[in-house]
Amino acid sequence: MNNPLEYFTKSILHSSAQIMLQTNSVAGILFLVGIGINSMMMLLGCMLAILSSLAAAKLLHYNGEAIQKGFYGFNAALVGIAVFYLLPANLTAVFFVIFGGALSAVIMHFMITKIPAIPALTAPFILSVWLIVLIIDFAGIDYAGVEVLVEVLPKTFVAPNSLSFIGSWSLIDLIRGAFRGIGQVMFQDNWLSGVLFCCALLVSSYKTVLWAILASLIGLLVANYLDFPQEKAVMGLYGFNGCLVAISLANYYTQKYWFIIPAILFSVLLTRGLEQVTVVALTTPFVLTIWLIVALANVKSLFDKKRKSKKKVIANS
């Protein structure tokens, strides 16, 4: 094992990097900088939640290598960002950050050890935030000026006048819109954050960056074509799940790119569908889309094995 300081530093940076499926310290640093240029409070929440998850993982004697790779910290990082997105900066928020960070590590460990056939992805983050939202609602705690189940918009946002809002956009507007979608993976409504996140992805692969940008653009264009709420579309809220879907599939199915576009489209539609039933979607569309792909791949693999088995029987008879 590395010396304690190196181990600790890598665990934190890899936890940040794993949010977008990277295992690279430089990517982790760039992600943290991307969060910080938009919101220092969210960066604080991210770091505090990571520390909470790492402490829980160490105290519960989870696998040291998995801790260092960031497997127990990236969901916590998202929880920490989400809490400071939802709540004003106070002791209550700090409590939920620490609680949610530790809880996400426990859920992650359960999924890794008890149901390894199902990729955990960001499910621990989703479940942790859902529980926190339930507690907040039950306790009557005030949100930080946002409506969690309906519109989540910055006070300074001004929506376009036209329903087909992209028709009046320049190429620069489209590019910025795509970067905002990438930034929203970590709740950052800032195209500069998206640019830094792309720089982080570029450390590993230029193809990953291209897929992330394409996925965000698809979310924006589909939202425009289907007249989804303009405000959310312009903020990139229909693109970030597609970004995660594209990055995940491009990493794990390197020779089968043909189904990535349909998967991105499905995640966009699923995002809108979950909004319609007033569910706090978060990264649920990403998780459900990947789970569906994995299930279909397993069914296809099983079918192929049976078909080969039948051919062998026929050949031997």
Describe the structure.
- Helices cover about 70% and strands about 0% of the residues.
- With about 325 residues, it is an all-alpha fold.
Overall number of structural domains: 2
- Describe the global form: globular
Q: What's the CATH architecture name of the largest domain? A: Orthogonal Bundle
* CATH class descriptor name of the largest domain: Mainly Alpha
Amount of beta strand: under 5%
What is the radius of gyration? Answer: 20 Å
Report mean pLDDT, rounded to a whole number.
90
Supply the number of helical segments. 14
Instruction: Briefly note the structural class of the backbone.
Output: mainly alpha
The parts where pLDDT drops under 50 for at least 5 residues are: 147-163
First and last CA, distance: 56 Å
Largest sheet: none
Q: Going by CATH, what is the homologous superfamily of the largest domain? A: Ammonium transporter AmtB like domains
Q: What is the ordering of alpha helices and beta strands?
A: HHHHHHHHHHHHHH
> What proportion of the residues is helical, as a percent range?
55-70%
CATH structural fold name of the largest domain: Ammonium transporter fold
Q: Can you count the beta strands?
A: 0
